[in-house]
Amino acid sequence: MKPEALAEALTSRFAGGIEPLQTPFDIPQFRVAPSVLVDVAAYLRELGYTMLLDVGGVDYFPRSPRFEVVYHFLDMKNRARVRLRCVPEDDQRPEVPSLAGMWPSANPAEREVYDLFGVVFTGHPNLTRILLPSDFEGHPLRKDYPLRGPREKLEARFAAEKNRFHAPKLAGER
């Protein structure tokens, strides 16, 4: 399906929940509301986009809305791609529906976005950390995460000496 026809089909079927975006690439992209994300993904699957290539997170801090979850789909028969950009409504607790029920490949990718950005995927079968320890504080790819991690919040008198780099002494040095 040509990008123009795909844009017309999606915008007519999901009026108000999806809008086409300009792109410098040959991949059509759309901004999708979380309320229609699962329906749009199911419709894309019917159209032949049977492979979910990737799920990623983006933090545009200090812009509002702050977060986006980006999905890349592939129609292998026609060698066509499409990108969906889902914008969570709440910047304090970003939340979008999970696509892991339709595409098993979404399961680990959604866990990674949750782990690193803090985006909650409702309906996910096992939304737990995948890259960081379960007791890790915060989400390190958020733009407002402290550069030195949670240790930065410690009092300077405790952290200063412990975290200071001491160059190894060379032979003959005191």
What does this structure look like?
- The protein has 174 residues and is α/β, with parallel strands linked by helices.
- 24% of the residues lie in helices and 22% in strands.
- The protein has helices at 3-13, 37-46, 106-117, 156-163, and strands at 18-21, 29-32, 51-59, 67-75, 80-86, 95-97, 120-122.
- The strands form two sheets. A five-stranded mixed β-sheet has the order 1-2-5-4-3. A two-stranded parallel sheet has the order 6-7.
- Strand 6 (95-97), helix 3 (106-117) and strand 7 form a beta-alpha-beta unit.
Short description:
With about 170 residues, the chain is of the alpha/beta class.
Could you tell me how far the N terminus lies from the C terminus, measured between alpha carbons in angstroms? 74 Å
The helix fraction, in percent, is 10-25%
Uncertain spans, ≥5 residues at pLDDT below 50? none
Radius of gyration: 21 Å
- Structural class by secondary-structure content: alpha/beta
Number of strands: 7
Compute the number of helices: 4
Task: Report the order of strands and helices.
Answer: HEEHEEEEHEH
